[in-house]
Amino acid sequence: MFSSVKPVAVVHFSGDLYTRPRNASIPPPAPPPPVPALFIIGDSSVDCGTNDFLGTLARADHLPYGRDFDTHRPTGRFANGRVPVDYLALRLGLPFVPSYLGQSGSVKDMMRGLNYASAGAGIIFSSGSELGQHISFSQQIQQVMDTFQQFILTMGEHAAADHISNSVFYISIGTNDFIHYYLPDVSDVQSKFFAWRFTKFLAQTVKQEMKNLYNANVRRVVMMGLAPIGCAPYYLWQYNSQNGECVQPINNLIMEFNFVMRYTIEELNKELVDANIIFCDAYVGSMDILKNKDQYGFSVSDTACCGLGRYNGWIMCLSPGMACRNATNHLWWDQFHPTSAVNEILAENVWSGLHTKMCYPMNMQEMVARRVRTSDDTINQFSSQA
Question: Coiled coil among the record's keywords (predicted)?
Answer without folding.
Answer: no
